[in-house]
Amino acid sequence: MIIRSKAPLRIGLAGGGTDVSPFSDIYGGAILNATISLYASATIEPTDDGKIVFQAMDKGETETMDSAMQLPVDGRLELLKGIYNRVVRDFAKKPLSFRLTTYVDVPPGSGLGTSSTLVVAALGAFVEWLRLPLGEYDIAHLAYSIEREDLNQAGGKQDQYAATFGGVNYMEFYSGDKVIVNPLRIKQHYLNELENNLLLYYTSTSRYSSAIIAEQSKNVVNKNEKSIEAMNNLKEQSVLMKEALLKGNIDAIGEILDIGFKNKKDMAAGISNDLMDEIYNAAKVAGATGGKISGAGGGGFMIFYCPAVTRYNVMNALKTFGGEFKKYSFTKHGLTTWSI
Q1: SS3 content of the chain, % helix, strand, coil (to 5)
Q2: Which of 6, 62, 117, 153 has the fewest Cβ atoms within 10 Å of its own Cβ atom?
């Protein structure tokens, strides 16, 4: 038997960063995101040799261990080990023997929620294999708990829920890990126009988001007024984005993104840099009306809204920066699992 799963990566359209504690606990967060046709995939092959094999094919990393109730989390493939430890502790109650192979369509640290989406995909494979009685909210919260609590990795809450639910969602975050996912029923021709006009650009750089997120959280604890005001403005941005999408005011999205770009840089140092500012300004000169840095910032993907036919001028203008445009489409489905 082979068990497979896949979960989609996401583009954050508005409100990014407001899902991170302690801001979301104190003030409440709101984010609008959409999943795209780039995925994290996982395959489990059960074995009976008393071994566990982890293969991260995109990273070229493999590790083989004896099956045990708990695996040491030593910094190598720790996401996969953390998932295994939690599944065995809470559900299986016995050591498991298998080969787990994973692959993510974009590099780690690129700002599309890669780590959390990988956790959701691998966790989904275990749910399928062991027939665990977990719904969408359960899987997303468990993925969050593994990353943030068991492995102490800094980050927010949106990625786990986006990967699990899929589609275009307006998400609300409250204290006590309360999350409400509101799926948006957007007319298909509005989505077609957004997909046509929204360019996904990889800067060919990646970053570790933990330092940026740690500073963002520190700014909230220290009551940094500029940072907190920026986060509240980003919450408002998510409301404006929701309204524009539902009403079909698609060309307003560029301006809404531009507002978010300026506010996001005020949340913490390192979110943008000279190169990303230069890329952003070049895109706007070429016809883009707005854009944003995906994820925590510091590198990775950027998105640009290009009305009418300006996308072609923007693509030409950014050729000199050495990045690449990534083709994608919006997806309606989140985590998908099956057995063969």
Answers
A1: 40, 25, 35
A2: 62
Write out pLDDT tens, residues 314-326.
999 999 999 999 9
Domain boundary among 185, 215, 250: 185
Whether 172 and 192 map to the same domain: the answer is no
Among 215, 107, 223, 74, smallest CA distance to 154 is for: 215
Which of 67, 8, 4, 16 minimizes the C-alpha distance to 292?
Answer: 16
Domain identity same for 50 and 98: yes
| Residue pair 121/40 in contact by the 8 Å Cβ criterion | yes
Q: What is the mean pLDDT of residues 11-38?
A: 93
Phi and psi at residue 80, in whole multiples of 5°? -70, -40
Residue 49 among the catalytic residues: no
**Residue 151: helix, strand or coil by DSSP?**
coil
Q: Which of 159, 266, 274, 277 is catalytic?
A: 159
What confidence score (pLDDT) does residue 295 get? 74
**298 phi-psi bin (left φ>0, alpha ψ -120 to 50, beta other):** left
Q: Are residues 154 and 50 in the same domain?
A: yes
> In which domain, by residue range, is 251 found?
188-325
Q: What is the pLDDT of residues 122-143, one digit of tens each?
A: 999 999 999 999 999 999 999 9
**Degrees, nearest 5: CA angle 208-81-301:** 25
DSSP code at position 320: G
- pLDDT at res. 226: 84
- Residues 175 and 217 both lie in one domain: no
Pick the closest to residue 148 from 216, 210, 100 (CA basis): 210
Residue 338 lies in a domain: no
| Listed residue (105, 271, 294, 287) closest to 200, CA to CA | 294
Does the residue 331 lie in any domain?
Answer: no
Output the domain CATH number for residue 112: 3.30.230.10
